[in-house]
Amino acid sequence: MHLRIIIFFAWAFQGFSLLGQEKTVAERLGYPADTKLLIIHADDLGVAHSENRASIYALEKSPVNSASIMVPCPWFPEIVAYATENPEMDLGLHLTLTSEWKYYKWGPVTSKDSVSSLIGEDGYFYPLVPDFVAHAKPEEVALELRNQIKKAYASGIDVTHLDAHMGAAASTPEHIATYMRLGKEFGLPVLLDSRIHAVDDVKIKSLLDESTVVMDYIHSILPTDFEKGSTQYYTQLLRTLKPGITCLLIHLAYDDDEMQGIAVDHPEWGAAWRQADLDFFTSKECVQLLKENDIVLVTWREIRDKITRVK
Amino acid sequence: MHLRIIIFFAWAFQGFSLLGQEKTVAERLGYPADTKLLIIHADDLGVAHSENRASIYALEKSPVNSASIMVPCPWFPEIVAYATENPEMDLGLHLTLTSEWKYYKWGPVTSKDSVSSLIGEDGYFYPLVPDFVAHAKPEEVALELRNQIKKAYASGIDVTHLDAHMGAAASTPEHIATYMRLGKEFGLPVLLDSRIHAVDDVKIKSLLDESTVVMDYIHSILPTDFEKGSTQYYTQLLRTLKPGITCLLIHLAYDDDEMQGIAVDHPEWGAAWRQADLDFFTSKECVQLLKENDIVLVTWREIRDKITRVK
């Protein structure tokens, strides 16, 4: 085939014109432009046995169709075993730079001497994002995140996407650029929303191109919503979901001794919170709501293979 | 200590008489020479929330009177909080050089580049002692163990003694010498039995002096005993306890989802095993057996303060 024709077809399949991104993500994935596309995405796999069990149950038995894994966490090997035995599952990496719980901790996968700006005096990651931002050297962030991705691949996981635990990997323009660069390096879509276009940063602007996929909406239940009831929040969300692509970030675990111990001083995103997420997304009502509202589930693997990796 | 009881501690369960010490440990602690002294010692604190909860319960509500902590494990901070709030508890360090469970892992507290001989390709400690022995460089063992002790002190724990998870820190004469030297360096008694006098090693002989405390007996239930019933084993053990000092190593946890997940492929030293230990040592029958058999409980803190640290 003539070179010019190849170039033409490459553009055609990606749905781009010289004027920019005229086609929506839905159209680029082969759906009508006004489709309500949804990724129901479980965060924090690997953090605990409770989280792993609940997330695996939901991935197998419910509309939850995607999840991401925290490579530095103690229960990572359990998810590796699951991922390698179930390669069809849509599993990405929840890039991790914080260790936020009071009594249960982890640190970098990189040798500590090489990423000393990422750890506190106790040898673990800093608990919260502001501590991380205050100390982290950009080159050490890049090294640690690259090593997390390399470890996941070395373990045999078919990584479908990258996202950022507690947003740490996307907390400054410099870290966002690293996060986007790693996506390009490994041919993986990264979780971003349309605010990325407004960031006044040369490095970020240079990374935005036809392979970039930007969510139209990212939703995650907040403490004020949780207080009013998870079912109410999610029901309303699904009933009012807008056309475009939405990533809904949820956290699944059992309200058991382990998860209660982890979130001992932290009801927000705690054991009961995660059990409530699990209860809703494994309910018949959730399935019914998706159907009634013409919501189409889509995975990161589809995005990766139909957009990110198409040249 | 669990899984493969190796080389050094494997000998211990038969018991050895004392040679070369003029006064018995009982006498040095102020008891008649023929007293039946017992340390009821819970291993593996820090390994899991289930282990921490069960061990704390037993330390507070039962004759279990001593325990040791695994510094590299994810739940170490939970035990730090307990130890610093309860400084009277008899808590030592279960020096850790292996990560033996299938789906739940940890590695060194030292920067990995400095102790690369202690870790496998996956970045964790080797699972079993023979792997550890085959790879470990003695200077890296010393560095890691010293860093575990320093981390415990920096965390605020009043360390009462040292012992060796799975016997790894006492698996070769060279590692035993390191283990004993660290005891001297920090003024801490280390778990040894009288076979130490028979080891034909100049370094070890030079470390044996009047501050060395050697257990007359070390006991720990084995799989064949567990099969016949934990209660039967411990009842018989307490009824036939001999005069002298005995250290009884037990493992306490609940037979819950977390512990079942950790010991998923390993009924030996598994969740039901640890629950059976907990059930026996928190029973009225245990208290009664100690009383009926004139058994006197003694702590590592008494040994540390009355023998090890007396010049």
TrEMBL record, chains A, B:
SUPFAM superfamilies: Glycoside hydrolase/deacetylase. Keywords: Carbohydrate metabolism, Hydrolase, Magnesium, Metal-binding. Pfam families: YdjC. Coiled coil: none annotated. The keyword tRNA-binding does not apply. GO terms for molecular function: deacetylase activity; hydrolase activity; metal ion binding. GO terms for biological process: carbohydrate metabolic process. The keyword Magnesium applies. Its cofactor is Mg(2+). This is ChbG/HpnK family deacetylase. It comes from Ulvibacterium marinum.
